[in-house]
Amino acid sequence: MLRLGSLLALVVATLFLPFQYLYYDNDPHFAHRIVAHTTHAAIALVGLLVSYLPSARRWADTCALLMVIAMGGNLLAYFAATSGYPPLVSNVLSLLLFGAAVICSWSPRRTAAVGSLFALGFLLVGLLTHRQDLGEERFVFSNGVLLFATIIAALCANIMEAARSGIERRERELEGLSNRLMSVQEEERRRLSRELHDGVGQELTAVVAYLRAIERHLPEEDGAVRTEVAEARGLAAKTLAEIRELSQLLRPSLLDDWGLVPSLEAQVKSFKTHRDLDVRFVANEMPRLPTEVETAVYRIVQEALTNVAKHARATSVRVSLTHETDGIHLDVSDNGIGYPRNGARPGGPGLGLVSIRERVRALGGRVTLTSDHGAQLSVVLPLP
Question: Global pTM?
């Protein structure tokens, strides 16, 4: 918002000076206009430069407030140095106040305070430098317009604040619902994995054992029957292997028993076995993490590798997991075709990317997807 407001202010300072030069031909106050426009552009340029600093997010609100007050002061200084155009100054101050309230998302209290400061400055400048105009209707009317604009701007800021609060409340509700859905989904996956492993898996193991016993007790002369039993045993063993693999995909037992790093190593090894890709996994020493964090990281890697296999046309993938002071850092990069416009697709982001962002948001982390010589997915998850 600071960057947007600074750009708009810079454009205004650049465009309006030629118009004023054409409109006010042979104006004795043209030098003051040059100074005012130059000061306005300098203030906007400072705000623009500050918006690109690493700590801009922390100081953006204070910088925007100071920038608006400085622009208002610059306009009042111009008003004091010239013969005075009260309606023009009043209207510009009103527009500055409305723009700041909308772009910077000011509260009603701050909007009213800055508007009152503008109105007081306008009145003081009139008293000190334009005493001869105080009796004129245009000065009184201009001051009234500025006060009225302050009231309207504060009311608009109040309405916008209520709307933002409603949106934030709905976002929190949706985030809570998303968290509950993911928790239910993981619990359902855990239950299905257990049922497949302990129920269907054990029954198929028994079937394979019975078929092996039948095959062993069949006489040698029943070659055709032995062949059919052997084929049935092979089919049952293949089905058992697929059931176990599906069980691991639903909920890997390694994740519960041994932790995140061994389960990711097994996942990467299985991915390399089934895909013609060079996958490298690196991780530093890591303690056992909260269950929700381990599950989220495992699922994010799973989704990311699936996306690489489906869309990236890559030949190599690198998965990096590190435990830093600010949390868990996960990076998945490939040498494929990348993502257009930072991950945007003609039909919108895929379900895999949506799932990754929801999981990261649920844990209060941040996710970055860039596309420079391939795709790079970076996730940072804070630890409680």
Answer: 0.57
